[in-house]
Design goal:
The chain has strands at about 5, 10, 15-25, 35, 40-45, 50. By secondary structure, the protein is mainly beta. A 6-stranded antiparallel sheet has the order 1-2-3-4-5-6, with no helix packed on it.
Length: about 70
């Protein structure tokens, strides 16, 4: 997997989005660096392709209703 951060954008295997690679936060499962995804205001593991937090229950939440099942949907 190729993962690059430049000018507030993260590109993972050609999939680009606003965010940042966290150098000090690692996945508890695979130890890969976590990535913050701006559009959904949450972290995910790119190797496991899973969100670190469940969607919230707030019906007026700006972020959660549009969040896909997995972060790296293509």
């Amino acid at each position: 997997m190729k993962m690059v951060e430049k000018h507030g954008k993260v590109t993972i295997d050609g999939f680009e989005f606003d965010g940042q690679i966290e150098q000090d936060k690692l996945c508890s499962t695979c130890k890969c660096n976590l990535v913050y995804y701006d559009d959904f205001d949450t972290y995910f593991c790119p190797t496991c392709n899973s969100w670190l937090e469940a969607k919230c229950s707030d019906p007026d939440c700006y972020y959660c209703p549009n969040r896909p099942e997995t972060p790296l949907t293509r």
